[in-house]
Design a protein that fits this description.
Helices cover about 25% and strands about 40% of the residues. The chain has about 150 residues and is α/β, with parallel strands linked by helices. It has one domain: D-tyrosyl-tRNA(Tyr) deacylase (D-tyrosyl-trna(Tyr) Deacylase, Chain: A, 3-Layer(bba) Sandwich), CATH 3.50.80.10. The strands form two sheets. Strands 1, 2, 3, 6, 7 and 8 form a six-stranded mixed sheet that branches. Helix 3 (about 100-115) links the parallel strand 6 (about 70-75) and strand 7. Helix 1 (about 40-50) runs parallel beside helix 3. The chain is globular, with a radius of gyration of 15 Å.
């Protein structure tokens, strides 16, 4: 699985003008299931993100996790993280999981974040979404369970 994690002051996702998910201070997690991914990758990634120490402590050092801060997460499916731009000018997405499997893993990942004790909201899989965020830092981290 691939994830692009952004530390945020706030984030929300809307579909057709309706807010379907939002969070205050915490993380916006753009997530993509790749072909061949399993629930095991989703479990490991959720556990890693929940414990990732990217929030500042009282001394101003990135030393606290999402669990430590009590922050929330907004999880948004984004198959374009699978983009292959190695040939031509039009990206290919054949390495992304098929939609049915991608949705299953997206929902499983979101559920695992909740199981980690994180207040978790999510976007709507497959929808044309609008994501608004206030990036905090900015802190943006790329994670990939492959390799």
């Amino acid at each position: 699985m691939r994830a692009l994690i952004q530390r945020v002051s706030e984030a929300r996702v809307t579909v057709d003008g309706e807010t379907v998910g939002q969070t205050g201070p915490g993380l916006l997690i753009l997530i993509c299931a790749m072909a061949g991914d399993t629930m095991t990758e989703a479990d490991k990634l959720a556990a890693k993100i929940a414990k990732l120490r990217i929030f500042e402590d009282d001394a101003g050092k990135m030393n606290l996790s999402l669990r430590d801060t009590g922050g929330g997460a907004l999880v948004v499916s984004q198959f374009t993280l699978a983009a292959d731009t190695s040939r031509g000018n039009r990206p290919g997405f054949s390495t992304a999981a098929p939609p049915v499997e991608g949705q299953r893993l997206f929902e499983h990942f979101s559920d695992r974040m909740r199981d980690e004790g994180i207040d978790t909201a999510r976007g709507r899989f497959g929808a044309d979404m609008r994501v608004a965020l206030v990036n905090d830092g900015p802190v943006t981290i790329w994670m990939d369970t492959a390799g």
